[in-house]
Specification:
single chain, alpha/beta, 3-stranded antiparallel sheet, 356 residues, 14 helices, TIM Barrel
Amino acid sequence: MTSKERVLTALHHVRPDRVPINFRATDILAERLKKRHACDDLLEHYKVDFREIVVPYTGPVFERTPDNTWLDEWGVRRKEAITKTSRDVYIDLNPLGDIEDADDIEKLLAYPWPSPDQYDFSVAEAMCDRYKDYAICGPGMHCEGYHGIFHQLTYMFGMEQAMCLLVTEEELMKTALRCITDYWLGYYDRLLSAAKGKIDLIFYKDDMGSQDSLLISPEMYKTYFAPSLKELCDLADSYGATMIYHSCGSVVPLIPEFQKCGVKVLDPIQTSASNMDISMLKNTFGDQLTFHGAIDTQQDLPRKSADEIRELVKKTISVLGKNGGYFFSPSHRIQQDTPLENIDAMYDVALNWNEY
């Protein structure tokens, strides 16, 4: 099978020749792995079945300040912090943080929202053609950024302010969400149109869960965020692409809502979060939903031995890969505190073990 055939077979809930494989890690860790294996392309080294296309940004250039902060095209200021074990980017300024109620709605509408026109979509088809034998995904799978509508709302207003306004100012928040949704609909419409049907998957990240529970209630999700997700899923479907929906944390109560919106693949299956048991997920949702991820980067990969990782991978593939419906991947970007031998162990099993 080609990589594309392998991924599409699993997506249609048929067991392929082996489980489809994906990869994600921090840049610092990726450089360590390249040195370890004397290679320039980790995706080739680990025989990854997915490739991502990211069209170039052509809008205004935002310079970094000496203290390592910068503005993005949304007017959000970010700050980078690198330690021995991690690289993190923090939100340093929320440009709509002073908006308080519906009286500010005109100010909200007058805000200089970014435009998808700031990207060069003309190269999308040629980028796809370079990866014609792979499952091709829109941005967000291997690259940073491209966070979804809830994420963007909290970046613009600040987490605390956004949460309060979702409770007290429904009209204001729906207006803000319309502005953000229209941006992403425009972006993906241009991308999918320019690619001429050659993009297989759209990877869309919008966390709705914490370690132990939901960040918002199911009722609030249905009121504010489900309509936007359905629009995005419908758009992807209209171009023959499949939505991979990323939501960290404990999200079991929302999975039926994701499915109602048209989600067919759920990521990252954070098994270290409450109630995210893979057997339960497969038995409950596995007939219709494909799972992407499930190899925990928070607890398991950094802390277990290589032999324990091998057994974990075998169990995960046996459960989630039964009758297809599983894309093998670390649950998140593998961090710098993960032993390199553990990473090699997980991919060795995924590539070479097929006794399930």
